[in-house]
Structure formats: C-alpha cells, structure tokens
Design goal:
- The protein has a three-stranded antiparallel β-sheet with strand order 2-1-3, sandwiched between helices.
- It has one domain.
- It has four helices and three strands; from the N terminus they run H-H-H-E-E-H-E.
- It is globular.
- Helix 1 crosses helix 2.
- Helix content is about 40%, strand content about 15%.
- It comes from Duganella margarita.
- This is Energy transducer TonB.
- Keywords: Signal.
C-alpha cells in the first residue's frame, strides 16, 4: 500500500511540475472538455511501474529541465488551440528518441502535441522503453 501511494505521489508531482511555459489560450470559457483517451490509463500504469527507482526519479528532473530549456512544448503553437490542458506520455527508446506518444484526451490540441513531440529527442533515459509524462497547458 505504501509503495502504491509513493508511486502515485511521484507521478502526480512529476505531472504537475512538468508544465509548459506558454500561456493558456484558445477556446471560450464554455468550451467543452475534450473526450478522454481510454488508452491513457495503461500508459500511466507503465510510468508508475518504473518507480521507486532512483535513476528514474533523477531522469524525471533531467528530462523536465531539458524539455523546458528546449521549449519542446511550443512547437506547433498547440497551447492556443484550447483552454483545456493535455497530459502526454512519451515512450522513449534507449537514445531518448520519442517512439510513441499517448495523450489523456483526444482532440485537435492533443493531436497537435502528439505531432509536436513525434520527432523530439530527449536525453537518454536510464532504461528503455521509458514512459515520460508531461502536463501541458
């Protein structure tokens, strides 16, 4: 039980910390929420299964800093498509190349972020495949 709580806390902290730099835009205040992606929970479970692991915890900080420094989330101007945030989970290979991505929701903004990260290169993770979640505004 304690291990599961730690996994959930680590994932929540990482996802909440990993926010994009752009301001929210797009859509009105009455904009409906996009539909959920039923495949997202399975990908988040894979991320949670990577912990506890000191190397994975350290990599989360390294990859977050890299993402923010490179402004990967600003590719394609996706932030302005909708007011609703998107959580994306990137699957990285041993070199840090994105091989797949899954978003928590479907829609134009989610697709834009999937395309923006499709060719992204992050620092090599401690193991592969590696699941890397990022919360994007």
């Amino acid at each position: 039980m304690k291990t599961n709580i730690l996994k959930i806390a680590a994932a929540s902290a990482i996802v909440l910390i990993a926010t994009g730099c752009s301001t929210m835009g797009g859509g009105g205040k009455d904009e409906p929420a996009p539909p959920a992606n039923p495949n997202f929970a399975g990908e988040m479970n894979k991320f949670n299964a990577q912990f506890p692991n000191d190397k994975a915890t350290k990599y989360e900080e390294i990859s977050l800093n890299y993402n923010n420094a490179q402004k990967l989330d600003e590719r394609g101007n996706c932030h302005d498509i909708s007011k609703h945030p998107v959580v994306i989970i990137l699957t990285l290979d041993a070199s840090g190349k994105v091989t797949r991505s899954t978003t928590d929701v479907e829609g134009k903004k989610a697709e834009c972020f999937r395309q923006a990260y499709a060719s992204a290169q992050l620092p090599p993770p401690p193991f592969a495949p590696y699941q890397k979640p990022i919360r994007l505004r």
